[in-house]
Amino acid sequence: MSSTIVLNSSNIVQGSNNSSLIYNFPNSVKFSNHQIAVQSVSLYYSWTNINALTLKNNTFSYSWIVGVTSTTYTITIPDGLYEIADINAFLQFRMIMNGTYLINSLSKNVYYAEFLVNPNAYAVNIITYPVPTSLPSGFTAPVANPATGAVAFVGFPTTTFNPVVTIPANFNLIVGYAANFATAVNTGVGTILTATSSISPQVAPNPNALISISNISNIYASPSSVIYNVTPDVSFGELIRSQPSEYAWNDLIKGTINSLLIRLIGQDGNALNILDNNIVILLLIREKSMIGY
To answer: Which of 54, 79, 82, 144 gets the highest tally of CB atoms within 10 A of its CB?
Structure first.
């Protein structure tokens, strides 16, 4: 026979980014020969792969030269779940806001740097294009847009160049480059440059949510507190319903306690930053002597 413990949003520890929940027993309980297992978990897929607070991987930069003066533009990505195509779209958005693009004869925006998935190499390419020294035939330069805050085209270089895209630490893991990698400037040559990931991109650094519970006795595991793995099988923002086909019972440390702490952590052992606090976790506790041990 087992007893059920229910945790929901009311159990979330304030300031934990919805990753820690605490269950306070009505009275102190003594665990002498008990086990615990996860019965079910329901939560929304709302932890991010780009995050300023916990992952610190939300920035990169590119350069632009006007005349002979180089300016570095830092791109700060809002917290969220991004594919490479989304990161590239945000780069293009910032280029529009910074006035570092042109418009071709078909009224299409022309950007001079991009991220592109290379599926054959399991990599991300960073492609940069030579910026002309004057307006090409049929092209137009963007004008300021007060409604959006976009500025007018900032200007041309004296000598053609390729923008330098710089990949700082932490963000480098997302796109698969060494920390602080920078593309070549290629001043005056006027050719397209392609860089390719040197390490496997970790676009989703925390693809799963591990459930860690305090007071677990497991001499075979490190950390010993992890007892369950939640794998998202839905799109970002949708509800995950996870229920084991068979309960994995874990021994509880013997002693008297007042509460249990449940944490949702990534594969790196750090707490997840979960945006949606609609979380329901059902736990089962049983006494081993009641099941024939």
So the answer is: 82
